[in-house]
Amino acid sequence: MTKDNLRTFLGWCSVINLGILLYWILALVFARDWVFWAHTWAVDISKESFAEINYAMMGYYKLAVILFNVTPYLVLRFAKFSR
User: What CA–CA distance (Å, rounded) separates 64 from 18?
Assistant: First the structure.
């Protein structure tokens, strides 16, 4: 695998993962009640606990995307490699 292939792969991984994060945020903003019902019909938790869990997991997901996708992509994009 060449550096160009890896850079392209990480770039698309970043786009896809950030799209998933954006979808998650938009689902909670515009369909909060439906998302709450869909995820808690079998488990009895409060809306406050549900919101806390979701926002914590969004933070962890965003951190993982930045750490494992965006940062290596930027390093491969802007670093000067000598041959």
Answer: 11
Taking CA atoms, 27 is separated from 18, 32, 38, 69, in Å, by 14, 7, 12, 23
pLDDT of 42 reads 87
| C-alpha distance from residue 83 to each of 1, 5, 80 (Å) | 16, 17, 10
Cα–Cα distance for residue pair 47/31, rounded to 1 Å: 13
**Mean pLDDT on 21-50:** 94
| 43: region left, alpha or beta (phi > 0 left; psi from -120 to 50 alpha) | beta
Q: Element (H or E) spanning 29, and its range?
A: helix 3-30
Choose among 45, 72, 57, 73: nearest CA to 20. Answer: 57
Stretch among 14-23, 28-37, 74-83 having the lowest mean pLDDT: 74-83
